[in-house]
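#data-curation
PF: Archiving a pair of folding outputs for the training set. Convention for this channel: one message per protein, sequence first, structure tokens after, nothing in between. First:
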Amino acid sequence: MRSTGKLHLGNYVGALENWVRMQEQYDCFFFIADWHALTTDYADTSRLKENSIDVLLDWLAAGLDPAKCVMFIQSHVPAHAELHLLLSMITPVGWLERVPTYKEQKENIKGKDLDTYGFLGYPVLQSADILIYKADVVPVGEDQVAHVELTREIARRFNGFYAAKREYVFPEPAALLTPAPRLPGTDGRKMSKSYGNALLLTDAEPVVRQKLKTMVTDPRRIKRTDRGDPDVCPVGDLHKIFSSKETMAKVYEGCRSAGIGCIECKSWVADALVKILNPMQERRKKYEDNPRLAWDILEAGSARAREVAGGTMDEVRKAMGLDYSPNDSLNSEPAKDSTK
């Protein structure tokens, strides 16, 4: 995840909740992508460190366990940059220009100059992030499948150029599609901090309840006596993700008959959210009170990541013929002086 600061519920249901399950099944590497944050926020790096630690604290709060997975900061593993450089030498510009999110983000992110080499080339850095750990699978939503496919193409091209005796350096990773329900924010749009409509994992109960009071509902339900439909209501979408079957039954019955008002309906979803958030916030506080614990986890994870990445880079340099040293003998004898 990019160094964007405190995470919201959309981050949780879209990725983090699944990561917590995956650490039980896979040898997982999770990193805070501070270099990737620079692709769009290069002009102001004042909060980069603070944002990075906030991401880690939310990971730990959600249940990621340093005993079960590796957590680290991207910039603390310089091999990512080296592999990015080497892969950029063989990646056609056309491949990057056709990545769907490239044009999409250029159109949607306003007020920033994105005509930079770093922004165009960030998918190559993503490929380096994946390939340097020889990942078998990458957990992504459908909108990121194109990035994994690009990584497969880059791995294939690298192996085609440099593999000796079909001993491929890189496996071609597969996209592990993770179901990610669309989580609406308080204004009905996709939840995003940039929209100002997000419920943060760190929001205290009074804040959660106050934000939900302002949340948009079924537009056809103007008066308390109007009947509504949870299937076209953003609050109903939250119920479907977080509430129990019993609560959902009350929501459908009460909303469609106008037996309940929107305020009562919102209070029920708030109850469900608080039950999820309170334990997270308690776990987070342990690290907030002792930030050294969090940094120790990152340092240990970065050391482990450097070890694995270093082994891969030894193979990469050897495959590319870059593993020479000053003590290596030259392939040919130096030319003799032909003067008399």
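PF: Second:
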Amino acid sequence: KLIDQEATKANVSVTEQDVNAEIETLKTQYGGEEGLNTALSQSGMTMDSLKKNTEVQVKIRKILEPQTTVKDEDISAYYEANKATFATPEQVRASHILVKTKEEADDIKKQLDEGADFATLAKEKSTDTGSAANGGDLGFFGEGEMVEAFEKAAFSMKNDEISDPIKSDYGYHIIKRTDYKEATNPTEEDKKEDIRNILVEQQVGELSTNWMSELRSKATIVNTLDPADESSDAPAASTGDTESSAKE
């Protein structure tokens, strides 16, 4: 309630687009929607509760952002300190079907050559249960992340090309390369706005604790509970009969 009052004073509003943009950023940080959903599940949260929390956080940021100061030298210092994290290596995206024997792999390759759907066969045949559920998709990976034979094949293929059976310690892989990303090494200018946003977030986080404490200390909190409900025999005030309001 106090935050809402301050937002009204500052003429701040949060749109659905604002919230969705934040959620998309989180998906990127967690490696995609599936990674974010896993993190939410581990935290006992749902997407709905995340959106509600995000709306509050965006509102606080919009209120406090005018109090932040990010200088060009701050951006330069952050870039130099974190330059390595901004660079990304060459990456490929691939799907695979993993089976135990060469005979199984040859049969699957024959079906694929005859027009069978890769994702469907991956779900039906692959012993890699983690990727099979996603049609064999392994996402993007760089050098050194997969076993050598698998990696060498994936990086040497063209997009949409399907390999012959590739042997590894895990069995036989049929690989389909689906995408490719060149290595990147962004300049400070490329990352300037991203860094500015990071530094603003940091400053807002530092400001928000004292700001919230100050709001509470200055507010008049009025308990509108009916005195009759305050008897010792009354049930706990979580039944919905209790309402608190914060007045200016």
